[in-house]
Amino acid sequence: MIEDDKRIEDLVNKLMSADSLEQAPADFTDNVMSKIEAISESKTIVYKPLIPKYVWWLIASGFVGLVGYALFSKSNDTTSLSERYNLPDVSFSLWENFSFDFSNALMHATVLLAIMVGVQIPLLKQYFNNRLSY
């Protein structure tokens, strides 16, 4: 086994000494880099939005036109806008009907959850950063 390894090693040494190193042409790097630059320049991706700008302008002008028509259209009677278009009355007091009576257990659980999330995020970030670095 050792003799076979020695013969293989002698054979490899003999082949390596008989073979000469090939030399690359002097402008090899420049040629390769010029081809890479040509490829990278030809395959540039141009951003084209899904909805063109003129469509957004049409939508905005249509919306402004509708709002302007609803507000400034003259009617013969002096009714309010909600009565004219039969709109329901809207109340903006959103928190009027809600009660916020939380139990102590729910408050403690919420605080504990916030603390655990606050501790876990930096630990997971450090773990993934260490895993990605070689």
Share of helix among residues? Answer: 55-70%
Helices and strands, in N-to-C order? HHHHH
Q: How would the global form be characterised? A: elongated
Distance between the termini: 38 Å
The poorly predicted ranges are none
What's this model, at a glance?
The protein is built from 5 helices and no strands. It is mainly alpha-helical and 134 residues long.
Set down the secondary structure blueprint.
Blueprint lengths: L1 H17 L9 H15 L10 H20 L8 H4 L19 H29 L2
Keywords: Membrane, Transmembrane, Transmembrane helix
Could you explain the architecture of this structure?
The protein has 134 residues and is an all-alpha fold. The protein has two domains: 1-43, no CATH class; 53-132, no CATH class. 63% of the residues lie in helices and 0% in strands. It has five helices and no strands. The protein starts with a helix and ends with a helix. The mean pLDDT is 81. The chain crosses the membrane at residues 54-72, 105-124. Keywords: Membrane, Transmembrane, Transmembrane helix.
Index terms:
134 residues, mainly alpha, 2 domains, elongated
